[in-house]
Amino acid sequence: MNSIIITLIGLTGGIFSGLLGIGGAVVMIPALIFIAGFNQLQAQGTTAGFNQLQAQGTTLFAMIPPIGILAAFEYYKAGHVEIKTAAFIAAGFIIGAWFGSKIAISINPVILKKVFGFLLLYISIKMILN
User: Fold this and answer.
1) What is the pTM assigned to this prediction?
2) Among 28, 63, 117, 129, which one is least packed by beta carbons within 10 Å?
């Protein structure tokens, strides 16, 4: 896998994260699937190498270190952070991510990819029309 392309995917995700508060799901997962080749499946439909689950797991793993701390600190310095709200979101996120990962690894990767795509489409339409 090309390290430069993977690094550029991370850089792009980081820029969008700092700029718009998005990055992992909206930028990095599709980039891993369509640019880095994480969409390869075996002919019989089972995973081989990379797939939607690999893209999601890799993105989550990359976000374990405090990669957003510098961007979050800039927002905090500018007075744009609600600490109590963020703490509750973080607590919910930890628990929700654990449950979500359990569900994700138990369903067909093709179905998961379609659900992900429809969710992005729904969000896109909602954001454009509202």
Assistant:
1) 0.67
2) 129
